[in-house]
Design brief:
alpha/beta; single chain; 23 strands
Amino acid sequence: MRRRRVDPETAGSPVGRVLGTSDATPLQFWVAVASGAYLQLDDVVVTSRELPDGSSVSIAGVVTAVRARHEGAAFDSDVFAIADGTLPAQVQEAAEITTTRVTPEVYVPPQPGAIVHRAKGEARAQALYFDRMDRQVPIGFGRDGEPLFLNADFIDGQRGAHVSISGISGVATKTSFATFLMYSMLRSGVLGGAGESANTKALIFNVKGEDLLFLDHPNTRLDDATRESYARLGLPAGPFPDVRVYAPPRAGGADATPDTNARMTGVDPFYWTLAEFCADGLLPYVFADADDERQQYTMVVHSVAAHLKKVAAPAEGAITLEGTRIASYEHLVDHLVEQLGDEATRFAWTGTAVGLGTVNAFARRLINSKRDLSRLIRGDLAQRRPHSINTAESAQLTVVDLHNLPDRAQRFVVGVTLKTEFERKEKSGTAKPLLFVVLDELNKYAPREGSSPIKDVLLDIAERGRSLGVVLIGCQQTASEVERRIVTNAAIKVVGRLDPSEASRTEYGFLPPAQRQRALIAKPGTMFLSQPDIPVPLCIEFPFPGWATRPGEAGEPPVSALRSIVQTKDPFAVVGASVGGLSDDDIPF
């Protein structure tokens, strides 16, 4: 498609001229700022140059550095004489411009003395390649107060996929930006018609407090100015319209009551029955630490998982092993340890090539898992009762609460859920509808060193998810500690407030030096976003959330939030009417 060149003289007000005392190149030049004008970091400017054949070239760029100094001063102490008026001098400001676009693509330097204009309207859109984005995702506002956009082609798999968000915990607002990006994707209309957009699914793991459990509640702090900001971005200001929340059962409870405090309605419990645990081969996810895979006992893990899958017989959520009925995870662990400790039965579970020391190492770690996983792996609850996390049958946005779980249990839930969802997408054979996965603390689940079942799933998503319609939005404090292939496969890279030692790592080489330095002092809500379309990362500020981010902000809940999936089911159907064809006269319990 041919793009019309914008005349710089009609693009915006003049702010200065191309500097003649510093080299001007096609990719970078300096501008002397005119008296009474100013340029700040991230401003967009445009200039032009006439060619010998009479045609002109438009050169647009972004301000990446600004300086001011006295002209006429030779010594540091001259500043005092100049201030007293005894030494003639003047203040001159200059701005470094990094070229973003040349139209047409004739890469010549701008001429010293050429007038430079602040880019507005169509000129700004061309400088930032917004005119080439057929599907624009609103992501916030620039330093000039104008909207900024993300090319949806690089997030939904058409030309790229996946997002990496890095920054200091509690300051960088990584999760806040991830949820805003998710809201913008779902509500801006870039995903297609109403049907396709509605069928798109999102899965968010909540790992800190109960802040993400109220995404379907309006924010009571939302004011008219914020609503106007959303309107300028083309978005409605409000909560996510279709949300389902899952939480683990309370520890020690026999009725699978969801373990939440602030939100008591519209929450469904999730767990796995012993029958599912054995049939689906979930034992490796009990040993999900990256260091575990480097130990020899992982051989035992896979052998025991395979044998469990072979010999465990389902019994209404519980299992029977060689005539022994097992109705709890603790009982299963004790039974396995007993089998492994008996020479008459050990080799049937481990094979003959494994030493006793390796078996004991496996047994010790398995015993330690009883406290963490007992409430998640159950044999005392009916298998027909709704308890599974399945985004295909859930709401548009599924929130899985993990904050009350210990570390081992969090790893188990994340690993098994991602494995199940990824396998479901593989079996569907189509990338549509899309599934977005928002996962915080990515450096914990996919560390740079070692291997684990969770890391393998995340690598699979990073490398094959684009073709299967699974998009990872990963958040981490330190991108330098995340598996390189996951970070590399992210088409979109976002940075908030950074630790000084982290900012110097090569993973942030896409940031210009000035932006690296600014990332050390960035305030909450300010992010630097890099996308393939634009040569320079954009500094963005995203608006205040329209949804509640903590219980104290939550407004009136929607009707759908007052009841959970279990509460909306007919109790007789939940227990057994859908299985075995119970009549009205049958006793379902």
